[in-house]
C-alpha cells in the first residue's frame, strides 16, 4: 500500500479554546502515514495542511482566561432551539467543506485511502474517497448525539432522528470503521446495526516526540514550576468537566500536610479553567497553569512531573485518552481512573488505578508514588516499554492498514 493518504478533519478552529484534540489526533495519524508513505495531507476548514502544520495549529494561542460569556439575547432562547440551529448549520458546513475540496488535485495523486473523523452530518471525506475511487476509513472517537447527551445537551423529539440521519449513514457507508474503544464500538453497533469492517484501535502516541530525557529534567522542571524543590502532580489537556479536575484539587488539598512540597501543574486551557483555578486558590493548593502550549513543547512539561493523572467523572467513560499514552511514553508514573479503557489496563503493572470521583483514593495513590519512588519508577519503565511495543501511532496505523487489506 503506497501513495499519499488523506486525512479529513472538519472541526473548525474558530471559537475553540485550548488544545483541539481532534486536530491533534488526525494530525498524528497523518504524521505516522507521512513517515511510512513519504507524504500525507490533512484536509481541514483551514485548507490542505501538511501534518506538522496541522499539529501546530492544533494548539492555538489562547486569550487570557476569564469567565465564559454569551450574548445577552441568548438567555431568552431555549437551549434546545440553539442545538437545533447548530445541527442545521452543520449540514450546511459539511456541504460547503465538501465543495471546497480540490478533487482534481487528489485525483492526480496516488491516494491509497481517505481517513475521515466522524462527526454529526459529516460525510465529505467519505464522498471524496468514493470520487477518487479509494477505500474510506471513518475514525470514531465518540458517537456524537450520545456524547452530547452525556454532557447535558438535549435534543427533545429529534435525538433519534439526528442519529439516524446524521450519524448512521456515515457509519454504514465507510469501508472501515475505526473505534477508539469497546464502548464506542458498542455505540456504533447500536446506531448503525451489525456490519463487517468495524475494528477497535485505541489512540496512540508519537514515541519520538514523547520520550524521557533525564539530562533535561532539571531545566524542564525549572521552566515549568520554578527552581524550588517540589513534588509535581501533573495533567495536560483541555479543561472540560469530564476530566474530573475538581477531584484532583480535592485530593491535593488532602495532601497538604503530608506532602507540603506538592504543586499541581495543569497544562492547557478551556472554559473550565477558571473554575479550577478558583478551586485551587480556595483550597490553598499550590498550582501552576501555563495555559495552552505548542504541542511540540508539551513533552517538556510532562517530563517535569513526578506523577501524572488521567481522570474521569464516573465509570461510564468511552474515551481513549491520548494524554495517558503521552504520560507513559514520557516515562512518567501514572494514576488513572478505573473507567472504560483505562480501567481495563494492567493496574499496578503499568499504572495505578483509582475509583472515579474519589479524591481520597486519588490522594492515597499520589502519596504511594511519592513514598515509593523505586516501585513507581519501575512501573513507569514498564509502561514506556509497552507503549514502544504497541502504542505508537505507527503501530495503530499498522492495525488499520492490515484491516484495510482484509476489507
Could you describe the 3D structure shown?
It is a single chain. With 407 residues, the chain is an alpha/beta fold. It folds into two domains: 6-204 and 393-406, Rossmann fold (3-Layer(aba) Sandwich); 214-391, 3-Layer(aba) Sandwich (Rossmann fold). 46% of the residues lie in helices and 14% in strands. It contains 18 helices and 13 strands. The protein has helices at residues 21-37, 51-57, 79-100, 103-107, 124-132, 144-150, 159-166, 168-173, 182-192, 217-225, 245-254, 273-283, 298-303, 322-329, 340-344, 359-371, 373-391, 393-406, and strands at 6-8, 41-44, 47-49, 114-117, 136-140, 176-179, 198-200, 231-238, 262-269, 287-291, 307-310, 334-337, 352-354. The protein has a seven-stranded mixed sheet with strand order 3-2-1-4-5-6-7. β6 (176-179), α9 and β7 form a beta-alpha-beta unit. It is globular, with a radius of gyration of 21 Å. The model has no long low-confidence stretch (mean pLDDT 91).
Amino acid at each position: 500500500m503506497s501513495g499519499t493518504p488523506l486525512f479529513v478533519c472538519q472541526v473548525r478552529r474558530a471559537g475553540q479554546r485550548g488544545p483541539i484534540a481532534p486536530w491533534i489526533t488526525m494530525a498524528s495519524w497523518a504524521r505516522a502515514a507521512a513517515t511510512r508513505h513519504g507524504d500525507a495531507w490533512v484536509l481541514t476548514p483551514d485548507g490542505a495542511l501538511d501534518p506538522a502544520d496541522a499539529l501546530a495549529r492544533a494548539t492555538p494561542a489562547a486569550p487570557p482566561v476569564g469567565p465564559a460569556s454569551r450574548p445577552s439575547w441568548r438567555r431568552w432562547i431555549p437551549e434546545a432551539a440553539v442545538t437545533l440551529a447548530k445541527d442545521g448549520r452543520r449540514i450546511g458546513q459539511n456541504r460547503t467543506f465538501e465543495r471546497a475540496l480540490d478533487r482534481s488535485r487528489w485525483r492526480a495523486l496516488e491516494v491509497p485511502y481517505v481517513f475521515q473523523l466522524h462527526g454529526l452530518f459529516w460525510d465529505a471525506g467519505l464522498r471524496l474517497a468514493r470520487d477518487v475511487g479509494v477505500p474510506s476509513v471513518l475514525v470514531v472517537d465518540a458517537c456524537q448525539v450520545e456524547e452530547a447527551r452525556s454532557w447535558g445537551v438535549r435534543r427533545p423529539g429529534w435525538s433519534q432522528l439526528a442519529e439516524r440521519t446524521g450519524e448512521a449513514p456515515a457509519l454504514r457507508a465507510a469501508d472501515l470503521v475505526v473505534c477508539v474503544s469497546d464502548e464506542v464500538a458498542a455505540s456504533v453497533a447500536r446506531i448503525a446495526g451489525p456490519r463487517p469492517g468495524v475494528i477497535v484501535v485505541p489512540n496512540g502516541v508519537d514515541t519520538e516526540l514523547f520520550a524521557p530525557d533525564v539530562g533535561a529534567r532539571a531545566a524542564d522542571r525549572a521552566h515549568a514550576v520554578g527552581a524550588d524543590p517540589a513534588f509535581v502532580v501533573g495533567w495536560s489537556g483541555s479543561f472540560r468537566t469530564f476530566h474530573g479536575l475538581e477531584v484532583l484539587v480535592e485530593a491535593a488539598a488532602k495532601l497538604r500536610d503530608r506532602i507540603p512540597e506538592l504543586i499541581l501543574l495543569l497544562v492547557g486551557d478551556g472554559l473550565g479553567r477558571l473554575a479550577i483555578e478558583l478551586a485551587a486558590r480556595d483550597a490553598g493548593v499550590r498550582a501552576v497553569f501555563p495555559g495552552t502550549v505548542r504541542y511540540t513543547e508539551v513533552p517538556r512539561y510532562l517530563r517535569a512531573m513526578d506523577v501524572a493523572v488521567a481522570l474521569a467523572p464516573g465509570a461510564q467513560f468511552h474515551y481513549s485518552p491520548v494524554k495517558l499514552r503521552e504520560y507513559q511514553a514520557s516515562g512518567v508514573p501514572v494514576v488513572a481512573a478505573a473507567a472504560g479503557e483505562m480501567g481495563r489496563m494492567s493496574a499496578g503493572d503499568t499504572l495505578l488505578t483509582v475509583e472515579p470521583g474519589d479524591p481520597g483514593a486519588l490522594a492515597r495513590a499520589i502519596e504511594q508514588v511519592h513514598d515509593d519512588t523505586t516501585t513507581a519508577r519501575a512501573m513507569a519503565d514498564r509502561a514506556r516499554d509497552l507503549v514502544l511495543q504497541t502504542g505508537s501511532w505507527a503501530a495503530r496505523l499498522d492495525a488499520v492498514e492490515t484491516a484495510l487489506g482484509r476489507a
